[in-house]
Amino acid sequence: MNAIIQARMGYDPKTAVSRHPRSMERLLFGQITSRLSRAIAATDRKALIEALHDNRKLWTTIAVDIASDGNGLPDQLRGQIFYLAEFTQHHSSLVLKEGADPQVLVDINRAVIAGLSSEAAA
Amino acid sequence: MSSILTNNGAMVALNTLKSINSDLSKVQDTISTGKAVNSAKDDASVWAISKVMEADVKGFKGISDSLSLAESSLAVAAGASETVTDLLTDIKGKIVAAQEENVDRDKIQSDIKALSDQIKSVTGAAQFNGLNFLEGSDSVEVLSSLDRASDGTVSVSNIAIDRQDLTASKGTFGSGTSLNANATASDTTVASAGNIASVTINGDADMSDNAFSIEIGGTTLEFQNNFFSNTTNDVSATTQVVAAINALGIEGITAAVNGGTPTQIDITSTRAFEDVSLSATGDATAGATEIAERAETIDLSNSASVNDGDGYRVTVGSSSYSYVAGKGETMEDVAKGLKAAIDGGNIDGVTTSVTQDETTGQWTLKVDNDGSGSASLALTVTGAAGGEASGGLFGLDTIDVSTKDGAKAALGNIDTLIANSVDAAAAFGSAQGRLETQSDFIGKLSSALKAGIGSLVDADMEETSARLQALQVQQQLGVQSLSMANQAPQSILSLFR
Predict the structure, then answer these.
(1) What is the pTM of this model?
(2) Residue B300: pLDDT above 80?
């Protein structure tokens, strides 16, 4: 790692947190979810569409990981998380095409954030 | 042709596919990883992806993201085109108000300018991830699936989505093949003088026993026996008939005795866009069945096709006005585009009209000159291929209601613009529908992915089910993270903004 990269990482919010996957996930879900809910509150459709797209990318990443053999979560939980990923994809399309209410996507993400924030965290 | 496929993931997936292609052809129905895809033959594409995933899951992500990107871009574009339609409708309201006599035209004009600027900022901002479906006319290729044929070759399927240009850009007149043959002007000048047809009175020295009727544009004048006295000859009867015609005050119609033949009445019509019927019975003969409209015509070919970049240019007086057709446009668009261009020139005394022949379907642009600027203006038309299309809102910039004529012309042109923006919104709607059919592929991918998970949720896509599952995930997540497989932290990291 050269000095420039090191310097940049020092000021980068992405690396300012612990590199533990759990806190990274929590931070990322938090970031995207607050963008989603801000866009909903401001009825800013452009911002909503942007946040929806990033949220989909997040859930696609999660889905791929959940489905891969190396994922160590219990099977039932994997099944449920994969379902949430599918639901998010499906419902995002409805929001884009038919103007469905996006709030449920925020609520799902908040449940995940709460789960990732439980006190027992190592 | 540009491609939405700028994301590395999909490119990597494609390259990976190519590189494992040779392996694929060696493997039969057994998938070494134990992933349960029913049969490679049943669903080659899923199987291929499933193989790819062993090597590089980015394939799935690439296609998912690509479709999401396309869906998002289309949603932005569809929303923007609806906003543009609303703003154009507001402009139309202003134009309607400007038709009145005693209004502050300049104030209305500045309102229209403000709304036009708003439209421009909406179309300019209608981009998503650098892609704007409302500018330019290239179609955009969206990666939609990867398929493996039975011989093992992998192919990429794309959906092409057409852009719908809603800019006011003038376009560029091409210098390609001449299209002069597709447009024919009726004359080389457009003059303010009306067209003339004659009626000849067939009488003698005693007009008391002569009877006739003359019909002009639906108005009939009757001259029965003994209308004229027995001392009235045909020449003075002609003078009386001329006075009678002029006394009717038919719009645009004047009558005069012909300078060379004292029993001939020359009837002049200055109606711009309307032929006037003419007939005579009894002791009068009409020289024609109608007096032609004053306007000159530019007939656009009925048989020639219109290609993207085909431009037509009309010169009126000393200025030229062009319209360059875009993808999927017709001679109707050319005629209406040229009309908007000429109207935008605000030439004193010049008005235009577009008509279609009911029988042949031919489109015609008409140009009239009432002489308030110049009694006669040159008129020529040329055409050339190979240009760059004018925008769908071409003519928006030159709407000018500060004069009565301008306001009248704007009324016709705004409807063309509204129709274009409505068409654009409809096209985006149908493209969204085509993307939806592609999400089947994503569904199959999901199935392939899911095959590796031992316990699947049997829940529908209703909100309540999703909320319930989310709650259970929240309670059961414990101290673990979602992404336990090794590649995720890196991918997660890349999602931060």
Answers:
(1) 0.79
(2) yes
